[in-house]
């Protein structure tokens, strides 16, 4: 039980870290003309969570008319996504911490 919780927490840490990297990449290239932003898509796997990175579909003519960034990256969405991914990372860290404490307790009982 504690080992599977540890594995799930670690996969959550890795997935959220990767998703944060995607948003950082999108924000860093926000002013790059014709940059195609990427999206992180979370998927459940038997061992936890994984992230697939894909290019976001967008219409350049629509972004030029609305006056958003030349790349089509939406700053508000990037900030919101980053906050969600950070919260997911923090939650996964708490799962890892709890699993670590439980494993330590089990080892103390056996010793």
TrEMBL record:
It holds the Pfam family Flg_bb_rod. InterPro entries: Flag_bb_rod_N. Residues 6-36 form the Flagellar basal body rod protein N-terminal domain. Residues 37-46 have a biased composition (Low complexity). Residues 62-78 have a biased composition (Polar residues). Residues 37-78 are annotated as: Disordered. This is Flagellar basal body rod protein N-terminal domain-containing protein. It comes from Pseudoduganella guangdongensis. The lineage of its organism: Bacteria, Pseudomonadati, Pseudomonadota, Betaproteobacteria, Burkholderiales.
